[in-house]
Design goal:
The structure is a homodimer of 709-residue chains. Chain A has 709 residues and is of the alpha+beta class. Chain A is built from 25 helices and 14 strands. In chain A, strands 1, 2, 3, 5, 6 and 9 form a 6-stranded mixed sheet that branches. In chain A, β2 and β3 form a beta hairpin. In chain A, α2 runs parallel beside α4, α13 crosses α17 and α14 packs antiparallel against α15. The radius of gyration of chain A is 27 Å and the shape is globular. In chain A, 59% of the residues are buried. At the A-B interface, β7, β8, α9, α10 and α11 of A face β7, β8, α9, α10 and α11 of B.
């Protein structure tokens, strides 16, 4: 990082400043080759799901009363149930295939079609079903199977009004009563009301309720545990002692029936405790194979890791559909003359339009390629756990560290994918103008439905801080949930080791860049790019550690203030880390394509665009730290324009590679949105869903003739 | 710009690096003093409107069928009609007060309460009414008055399916028939269908239709003109030859009934031409007091200037309400322990939370203060025009330039205010977590309703390019709508003059910074800040001019490509310009507060935060251009954290100064969202709108007692 770069007065070699422009006429056949890279190891299962989802009935319903929309969504969930796509994620013990990772890809694909459907499915199979499957044992088989076959609709009763992000502080209690051999579930205060619980206001009959576990003779809670609680009778009336509230209308996901739950000393059998990681015997003795209560807590939250990967994937799914819709429109719609005075230019031919869609598209590729890596890693982990090679309750130190890193990866991936979804879907909507605002073209529904993704399953800002803290502690298992003081102490004693010990994606150990000597390298060189991003990751982390370390002589409260003051720094560190991993995943994936091929040239430009945009997002920082010279940053800026120009004609091929189910792309604006003369002569109203209230004067002639008048 | 700055190895003086921290305990009385600055010259009229709007019935309706929501909104519009607030904007001739600018403030305040209501009101009174009022003459009095008193509901029939942003290319025709003394309005192709027209699908009886005007014996169109066309009979059936379509469900503004209009040779009287700026006599001779057809077109689009200011103001209105809601929540809601192990910290006490809300808050102040300037300037212009001092049809060269500058100001203001609305409302929503996603807390409705603001009344990206082009031509009237070649020629011949001729806000001429020698100045010095922003404005413009000038030897098509390639540069130039004006307006406004007073200290910190954030948004550019050293940029970054820390306790006072109608701030989450012990003991469900479907076990005791169990 001595940055010989900074001295760069010399001009870089011209060839390193501009990318080689791609042919102006795109080759549609490339889409299939790119699709293989994007689908990665999951192409076959994804294609099966795509075929299942390619139906009109799967699309979101936006009109109607809340009750109609909710009822309609439940029918769609049943339709998904019949495909079997979500049940494969369950363990073999419960009749699934044990491929938990398939649920993550499933959410991605569902979200490409209908995000309400994705989330309600996710609650039923992933959260309710997942909790019972993962935290339960053989005695809970009926619940797992009921979740799978939809005879038991259920919810995930974690969040409380008072505590959403801070799960360890939940207040609902589960007190064991040895006399009746029951747990008593109770809501001690309004703040302990279970809140925003999906699948609850209308449909749920069961809930996986998280509560502080108390046993006789032990004053302190054993921590948060999960219990199966019946909340409604079969006929839909709430069970005795259970009060169910309805959140009513929300900013999106209208069909998902979010509600509240309060428990007035509701009695459930002892066996309702999901006892994979802790149990209470008939006498009320608490046992757990995991000694540390902190470790136990995080083990039980394991479902959240899958949930976070799935929510990130769902955000990415909605992003892919939105960009596909907007880019296809941009290749058709014309507005404003440029060079040719007789014909308006296609939107994609305008520079600003290319920038606003193709830059987010490049990032979407990067997210997909990281997602593939993470899903594969998650699959490997769960399969090792299923085979017994990897004990969940007693992992080797290396496994424990890897599990911790997986938590961070899921947290940061969820944050980066869902934040990108907000930005990219909004750009897609705006770049379709008024048509983009019509619900029939789906973009506003994607936007509204995915909005809550940035705060549920863990608020992004909290998740990024979590990931940032884990970077400081280098995922050491003894620091599962570090207090501010823990962080300070750890930083103070381990400062030199921390930056070196990073392990990357768990594939090839990523080398630490000690000095940055590549100032002569091309901006388009993959290795150079990786170094530039990795260096940011390391420098931000190093300065964060120093900053936190500075609190070592302060008292507890003052030290906590320093850590709190470093929140934005923690967030930056996590961002830099995950972006570096995105680039790494991208570069690895592109190597699957033959060198020298057109498809390789295309995907390399997409990667260049992603990396250079990431650098420019941090253009200030790179110069402040003397990592990049102003000349190099300017060159990166210019290269971005060259890249969007080069990729412009190819951008439809790039979204075709997403293989979005066709029913999603059958939007009315494609049939009536162009401004070609040829289109102007088309028959009237061919595509639009606009309902004509009344047409007068039709006797004057057929509308199609009218068009020629 | 020689940038002695760049050499800065010396450390800046410490006092220039950190702001003086404000007292930790805020003074609530400051809110009233800040309110005076924010309301500016309009305090009295705004307070009247606030009182009128502070009622439950004005709030948005989110649930129900589309028909119910639309019907409900029409009733709300009638309620607004009774207050008379929107009618004052009409000319004295038609019975208004001639204070057109009041409609802009009116939209701001309406949008603080209900954006659907703001937009439907804006269509009825501002667009339909405004077109008739401004473009019509005495013979159109009945329409103006019908628009005012709601006996004539109408729409603004401009946008077509094929042409939204490119208004000059509209295809609807109005052909004069001297035999019957009528115009024949016709839609020649599906692409010419009037589209997204508000107040049309359900309620409108009339429309101000924009069409190419043809007269006998003249082959070419006289350009786009506006006609009053009846579209429905009183009973609601479409008029003969008029086909009305319904866009149905949209991404927001659900109550606004957007529809389509097609005309099958619909005959309207000759007098239906709004003939303020052009007329056709009985024989079919066309006359206009404005010779240039281009100039005539832009004069007729004058209503759009007011519309754009109003949409910008409406975006700012929704932003103010959203930030007020989110910041008040942040001062109440607690989550996560920091220093104090027994009590969780308020959200506002977390650094990340302060950053995400207070930085947008500072920008919101800047937008408000610019808005005040622009509304005042618009008021001065319209009043001079009404008095005859300023002829609309034959202005002095200075007036013509000023009018052109006003167009650019309105365009850029609309863009900056609505883009900010998207970002800030989203931050507000996210920072309230799950509660922010519940419609009862209003944030998602603000977000969804304002979404289309960024593309309607002119797409922001198009408007910014328009403003950028006007900067190049220095608002010269002969270049009203410059072709790419015009731009190139102008840039080639006027390059040295362009940057110097900028006239600023029309108040004190803003001096051009020739060299930048203030490296010793404090980051918190207002004059220094202004120079830093103005320098960016000028340098971006200068490099833009050079870039475009480079095309002077190319042929027309190639030159157009160069201009198209400079689109992002045009956008940057417009951004830099408007941000510089925001800072200027801010600094002028803050001087109304007594020096040395607490209120002055507070508002100065808000301005510091706005300016430093604007600099950091362009941190890369400032270093690339050697305008700021890396040390100075780092200092600005650090100062932003210091400023949000200092302003944190004051941030509730800062939003109280917006004087949002109280009914908006009466959100359920304020009653149940904290996590204080005291709140935990409160009675159950005091505030939430959650509907309890059924409560079992109520006989076991009163819920309020239950809370203490």
């Amino acid at each position: 990082m001595t940055s010989a770069e900074a001295k760069e007065g010399r001009k870089a070699k011209p060839e390193s400043r501009s990318p080689q422009a791609l042919p102006e006429t795109p080759d549609a056949a490339i889409a299939g080759k790119l699709k293989k890279v994007l689908d990665g190891p999951f192409e076959e299962t994804k294609d099966e799901i795509r075929a299942n989802l390619n139906r009109e009935e799967a699309l979101p319903q936006v009109e109607g009363t809340l009750e109609e929309i909710r009822a309609g969504l439940l029918e769609k969930v049943k339709m998904i149930g019949e495909t079997g796509m979500m049940q494969t994620a369950f363990s073999k013990r419960n009749g699934g295939s044990g491929e938990a990772h398939l649920g993550i890809n499933g959410l991605d694909l569902l979200a490409q079609v209908n995000d309400s459907l994705a989330i309600k499915s996710g609650v039923q199979w992933g959260l309710w079903g997942g909790a019972v499957d993962v935290l339960g044992t053989d005695r809970h088989k009926e619940y797992a199977q009921g979740a799978m076959n939809l005879t038991k609709l259920g919810s995930y009763g974690m969040t409380e009004r008072g505590h959403g992000s801070n799960v360890q502080a939940l207040q609902t209690t589960a007190t064991y009563d040895p006399e009746t051999k029951e747990f008593v579930i109770n809501t001690p205060s309004p703040m302990a009301t279970k809140t925003y619980i999906g699948n609850t206001a209308r449909d749920g009959r069961w809930s996986a309720v998280f509560a502080q576990l108390y046993t006789p003779g032990v004053e302190e809670s054993h921590g948060v545990h999960c219990f199966v609680v019946r909340i409604r009778e079969e006929d839909g009336t709430p069970c005795e002692g259970v009060t169910i509230g309805d959140h009513g209308h929300k900013g999106g996901l209208l069909g998902v029936d979010n509600g509240t739950l309060t428990f007035d000393n509701v009695r459930i059998p002892r066996e309702a405790l999901l006892n994979q990681f802790a149990d209470v015997d008939e006498e009320g003795n608490y046992t757990s194979p995991i000694e540390s209560s902190n470790r136990r807590f995080f083990t039980m939250l394991g479902t959240l890791i899958r949930g976070r990967l799935a929510v990130g994937a769902a955000g990415a799914g909605a992003t892919k559909s939105s960009l596909a819709i907007a880019l296809k429109y941009a290749h058709q719609r014309r507005q404003f003359n440029t060079g040719d005075e007789n014909k308006e230019a296609k939107l994609i031919e305008h520079r600003v339009h290319r920038r606003r869609l193709i830059i987010p598209l490049a990032r979407t590729y990067a997210i997909q390629l990281l997602q593939n890596k993470l899903v594969q890693r998650y699959a490997d982990q769960t399969s090792a756990q299923a085979s017994g090679e990897w004990s969940v309750t007693d992992p080797t130190p290396k496994q424990a560290d890897a599990a911790r890193e997986m938590e961070s990866l899921a947290a940061a991936f969820k944050a980066v994918a869902t934040e990108h979804a907000m930005d990219a879907i909004q750009e897609a909507r705006e770049s379709c103008g008024g048509a983009g605002f019509m619900s029939e073209n789906m973009l506003t529904t994607f936007r509204a439905d995915t909005d809550v993704f940035v705060t549920f399953e863990g608020d992004n800002m909290v998740l990024l801080q979590l990931a940032g803290k884990n970077l400081i502690t280098a995922f050491a298992k003894e620091l599962e949930n570090p207090s501010p003081m823990d962080l300070v102490k750890f930083a103070a004693t381990n400062v030199t080791d921390i930056v070196r010990s990073r392990v990357g994606l768990g594939t090839a150990g990523q080398s630490v860049v000690d000095t940055f000597t590549s100032e002569e390298a091309s901006l388009f060189d993959a290795e150079y790019q990786l170094k530039v991003l990795a260096l940011r990751e390391q420098l931000v982390l190093r300065s964060l550690v120093r900053r936190i370390q500075s609190a070592r002589k302060l008292d507890r409260a003052e030290a906590a203030k320093v850590v709190d003051g470093a929140q934005d720094h923690l967030v930056n560190a996590a961002w830099a880390w995950i972006e570096s991993l995105m680039a790494q995943a991208f570069i690895e994936a592109e190597q699957e394509l033959p060198e020298g091929s057109t498809e390789r040239a295309v995907i390399e430009q997409v990667r260049n665009l992603f990396v250079l945009d990431t650098i420019i997002r941090n253009a200030g920082w790179y110069q402040e730290q003397n990592v990049l010279s102003s000349g190099r940053v300017k060159a990166a800026r210019a290269a971005i324009n060259d890249l969007v120009d080069s990729l412009g004609p190819w951008s439809e091929v790039l979204v075709d590679a997403f293989a979005i189910p066709e029913v999603v792309l059958d939007r009315p604006m494609f049939k009536d949105g162009g401004t070609d003369d040829s289109q102007g002569k088309e028959a009237w109203n061919v595509g639009s869903n606009i309902s004509i209230t009344k047409r007068y004067g039709e006797d004057k002639g057929d509308p199609a003739e009218h068009a020629d008048a």
